[in-house]
Model the fold of this input.
Amino acid sequence: MTLLDECLEALQDNYKILSNTQKEQLLKELFETFSLTNWGRINWVKLKTVKKCMDTENFIDSIIDFIGGNNEDIIIVWDEINHPKILLN
Done:
């Protein structure tokens, strides 16, 4: 079982895999919103608020707590470009 399979299983069908069009739009918005390093990673030093999640067992709960429990969309973007982008419900 891959890490992707484990993630999808843990989400218990509370997710949607983004289409290629949605994925391209998301990546465009990310590149417009975040400052990137020369090697293509988010430049975390330039962000106003950063929280490192060390609790890998409950990372979704940590994200929800961080954003205040609002009904904001949470999208998982993998560092592996071929993996799908996942919208959490």
